[in-house]
Amino acid sequence: MKALVFSGPGRSAWQDVPDPRSQDAGDAIVRVEAVTICGTDLHILKGDVPDVRPGTVLGHEAVGQVVETGSAVQGVRPGDRVLVSCITGCGRCRFCREGAYGQCRGGGGWILGHLIDGTQAEYVRVPYADLALHPLPASVDAKEAVLLADIFPTAYEVGVLNGRVRPGDTVAVVGSGPIGLAAVATARLFSPARIIAVDLAAPRLEAAKRLGADAIATVEESEALVADLTGGLGADVVIEAVGVPESFELCTRMVRPGGHLANVGVHGRPATLHLEDLWIKNVTIRTGLVDTYSTPTLLRMLVDGRLPASSLVTHTFELNRMEEAYDVFARPAETGALKVVLGEPSHTTVSVRAGEGT
Hints:
Layout lengths: L1 E7 L2 E6 L11 E9 L2 H8 L15 E8 L11 E4 L9 H4 L25 E4 L2 H4 E3 L6 H4 L5 H11 L8 E5 L3 H10 L6 E5 L3 H9 L4 E3 L1 H11 L5 E6 L4 H10 E9 L11 H4 L5 E3 L8 H9 L9 E6 L3 H9 L1 H4 L3 E5 L7 E2 L6
Parallel strand pairs: 8-9, 8-11, 9-10, 11-12, 12-13, 14-15
Antiparallel strand pairs: 1-2, 3-4, 3-6, 3-15, 4-5, 5-7, 14-16
C-alpha cells in the first residue's frame, strides 16, 4: 500500500510500505476513506516531537471501513464505516477507568502516527478498536466526520471544558487556526457573553467571525481590546491555541484574576511562566492532551447539524496527493488553508474555495 512516511526532521514521502497486519486480538484493520493533516504533524516534521522515529507512517485522524477485526473486538465488524479517533485506550488501566484515555498506561494514548504507524495511508491498524473506533451513519459526510477525530474533541475538552467556559463569560481564543476555530464554535455552546478571537492573519480572523466570534483582534491589538471590553479586568477564560512561547505569555497577561487559562497548543520550545506576576492573581492554568471522551456527544451534535465542521474544510485532495496537501496546509498565509481533507477518488476530489488558491 501507499503511505506518508516520516524520515526525519523536514523529510517525508508518499511511498510504498507493507500492508498493516493485526498484532493483537483487540486490533482492527481499517481501509481509509478520508484523512486530514494536523498541526501536530507539522510539529513532527519540524522535529518538535522526538518520540516519532524515522520510518513511521504519520497521521492520527481518519474515517474508513473496517476490513478485519481481532477475536476480542466486539463493538465493530468488517464492513462497518467508522471514525478513527486520534486516541486509543486499553480500557483497563487507572486512567482509562477515569475516562482519561490520553494518559493510558496500557499501551494506548496518542500512539497513531506517533509511536506506531498512523492513518495517512491506504490502510491502518487500530489497536484497542472497541474504544478507538466509532461507528458512523452512512449519511455523515466523511470530510466533516474526520474533524471529530481530533480537532473538535481537542478544542472542546482541552480548551472549552478545561477553561470552564460558563454563561456570561468573556472568552479570548489566541490562535484562529483549526483548533482555535473549533474552540470558538464549541465555546458558543455555553452562551458566553462574548468571544474574542486573536490571530496574525486576517483571513483566519474572518473565519472566526463566521464561526461565532463577537470580536476579532490582531496580536498587537488584543491586550488593549480585551482590557477595553472587560473594563480592565481581563478575560474570564483564555484559550491558547498556537503553541509558541509568545502566545502563551500573551494569554497569561490577558486572563483576569481568578480566571482560567487553557493551553491547547503543542509547544516545542520552553515558555516563561511569570510567577512574579501570576502568583497573586489566583489564576488556574490547565494543560492537557485530548482524551476523546466527548467524541460520542460531538458525533450526535454533528448528526443533528449543531457543529459547523464543514466550515473549517478549505481544501480537499485525492489521497495520493498527500505531499501537495502538506505543502498547502503548511503555508496558510499564502493558501488560505484551514483544514485539508484527503480521500479516495470516488469520495474526495481537489477543490478550493472561491478566492483561494493552492
